[in-house]
Design a protein that fits this description.
2 domains, Rossmann fold, single chain, 54% helix, 278 residues, eight-stranded mixed beta sheet, ProC C-terminal domain-like fold
Length: 278
């Protein structure tokens, strides 16, 4: 990756994971600045990664080639309005804030600013994230590559063709870790009810989840075929799956993800300028 002058606005966990991932891949700490109003956060980033830190957002972005917006959605409007007058011409802005549409950012930063909207998930904190990216109008091929490599420092990345799909990404992978945590929680509880100790039930459940994911990632067949291969007719797995099927698990997941998708769209519309709402 070309070592652009990179500025993070916000120094929380996700920003820290991206900084750490980039440095681990050889990105020079001298090319990274992290901005945060909290002194403790700045000290942590400077100590752990050796990057420059500041609480002066406008001063930091003036010379930035890439700006990563890593602040909470509820403060995004105030932050980008502060940055707009200082943002350097030609800078790429990457937003990792959930639910904030490109139009909401462009309305405050300027229609000619190159904006990439991303939806990472929390496994990025351990280098195993999944991120969907959408490029707004005016984002060049080189800027797409830069955005992909920055988010790719903490996991896998996929591009979507329309911003509408980012809500689906949020429903599947953005919120997805919680679904798996819930399944694992339920399996641990069921294992305990069957007589296992909490430690044993927990260890078996977590390792099984990890092993299943690795098998699926490394396999040349889809997950439906993998499920069929481990389900012997009349066996224990078939008995368990029959109960889940009778309980409507597939339909339940469909409704759950549809609810997450709808909520994401509602949040995005609420942040749009009045003139852009439909």
């Amino acid at each position: 990756m070309e070592h652009s002058k990179l500025v993070f606005i916000g120094g929380g966990n996700m920003a820290a994971s991206l900084v750490g991932g980039l440095i681990a891949q050889g990105y020079p700490a001298a090319c990274i600045t992290a901005c945060d109003p909290v002194a403790e956060a700045r000290t942590r980033l400077a100590t752990q990664f050796g990057v420059a830190t500041t609480d002066d957002n406008r001063g930091a972005v003036a010379a930035a080639e890439v700006v990563v917006l890593a602040v909470k959605p509820q403060v995004m409007a105030a932050v980008v309005e502060e940055l707009a007058p200082a943002l350097g011409r030609g800078a790429l802005v990457i937003s990792i804030a959930a639910g904030v549409p490109v139009a909401a950012l462009a309305a405050r930063l300027g229609a000619d600013v190159a904006i990439v909207r991303c939806m990472p998930n929390t496994p990025a904190l351990v280098g195993a994230g999944a991120t969907g990216l959408y490029a707004g109008a005016g984002v060049s091929a080189d800027q797409r590559r830069i955005a992909e490599e920055i988010l790719g420092a903490v996991g896998t990345t996929v591009w979507v063709a329309s911003e509408r799909e980012i809500d689906a990404v949020t429903a599947v992978s953005g919120s997805g870790p919680a679904y798996f945590f819930l399944v694992m929680e339920a399996m641990v509880a069921a294992g305990i009810a069957l007589g296992l100790t909490p430690a044993v039930a927990g260890q078996l459940t977590l390792q099984t989840a990890l092993g299943a994911a690795r098998m699926a990632l490394d396999s040349d067949v889809d997950v439906a075929e993998l499920r069929r291969r481990v389900t012997s007719p009349g066996g224990t797995t078939a008995a368990a799956l029959a109960v889940l099927d009778a309980g409507g698990l597939t339909a339940l997941f469909a409704r759950a993800l549809a609810a997450a998708d709808a909520r994401g769209r509602e949040m995005g519309v609420a942040l749009l300028p009045e003139s852009s709402r439909s």
